[in-house]
């Protein structure tokens, strides 16, 4: 019988364990099934859907060149995916299904249900870990428990990594099969194609060009007006590239010098990604939007008016507004600003962090449950290894520090673009009036005082 590879968040032919193993075992056919309504329930952005769709078209070309057909289907919910898979398995005389694991709760439940169902009809289910550079559960403390704090996790992660296979898998060999490609269902959506190139090859190009400048990352990564980060997050979120491939390419960049790899700042960010995924695997309840820290104080009194001003980039705090408009216009926000925007909403406006988490998911092209939830809980001090409650980033001092000349603000808040680099961070009342820019929606000093009292 044939081997069916079910593509999900692993839209690549290289370093894809499920695809690789299936091709070792027999003749491969591939399928991707979009679950439209499920995705809406998970609040995923239209931009992300568009990026997935275009990446699938690229994936299909790559697979076809290997003699593998890819059927692209769509349905409403995860249950429907299971039904469709069963039909495909019957129609195509499939005796084994192969896929790489996903870690959020609804996904793991669906996969377990599928596995039970297929085992009953004698179809072999083979599951792999393709999303993490180290298999989940490998990194544990001396008591055999998962880490809750990043720094010791990273230390232990490095020790494990030194002994783990670190070479990404190659693409599978070409197979001799005849097929006519099926009609594709259309579920495409709009996104900024001028900013984001879809597909595996585009991801590798981005990685290579970033690696040329990776030595500057440490200094440039916090300056939003500069393209100092890899901008690979949208690719990592849908698996057009894997974390393992990124880490391996970085090691190659350092000519195999492990000490340089493990001391690298960008490497550290990739381990944060692993950390948040592991946290979700160990704590499935996070997928129900519970605070990680059950004792965290959660007195969120901020209402819709504040939330709305924040979403629209009309808070009257130029750096926050620039950040939110970058998100709304491009589907991406710089990491420094994600922290600022999140702390502003949660701690200074006292709006429930879940509202912000959801809005980010609804707009981000790189929306990723584990990283987004981890980021929001870090900022709101409700998370595993989060900022202490009293850490509240001041929009004004952050703006002066990380956007010293106001270049980033000028780009996204054009009504302020004529202001000089001193006043652009905090325009006067008269300037706001004449430029049509709103008054601050909160009094920073008072809001900070209130937050500290409430959260202490
Ligand atoms: P780079 O700086 O080049 O980093 C390389 C890769 O490492 C990223 O692509 C990402 O996969 C990973 N990474 C970097 N920083 C983090 C981090 N703090 N946590 C986890 N992984 C990280 N990232 C997402 O991918 N999806 C999200 O939905 C998301 N939501 C966030 C929400 C908040 C409130 C915060 C504070 C952070 C969030 N992040 C999220 C993490 C981070 O902001 C983005 O990964 C990063 O800005 C993406 O840009 P880049 O690819 O240029 O990153």
From TrEMBL:
- For whether the record's keyword set contains Magnesium, the answer is no
Q: Which cofactor does it need?
A: FAD; (6R)-5,10-methylene-5,6,7,8-tetrahydrofolate
Question: Which PANTHER family does the protein's record reference?
Answer: CRYPTOCHROME (PTHR11455), CRYPTOCHROME CIRCADIAN CLOCK 5 ISOFORM X1 (PTHR11455:SF9)
Tell me which InterPro entries the record gives: Crypto/Photolyase_FAD-like_sf, Crypto/Photolyase_N_sf, Cryptochr/Photolyase_FAD-bd, Cryptochrome/DNA_photolyase_1, DNA_photolyase_1_CS_C, DNA_photolyase_N, Rossmann-like_a/b/a_fold
Q: Photolyase/cryptochrome alpha/beta domain location, by residue?
A: 1-133
Instruction: Supply the name of the protein.
Output: Deoxyribodipyrimidine photo-lyase
Do the record's keywords include Flavoprotein? yes
Entry similarity comment: Belongs to the DNA photolyase class-1 family. Belongs to the DNA photolyase family.
UniProt keywords (A-Z) are:
Chromophore, FAD, Flavoprotein
Q: Show the Pfam families listed in the entry.
A: DNA_photolyase, FAD_binding_7
What's the source species' lineage? Bacteria, Pseudomonadati, Pseudomonadota, Gammaproteobacteria, Kangiellales
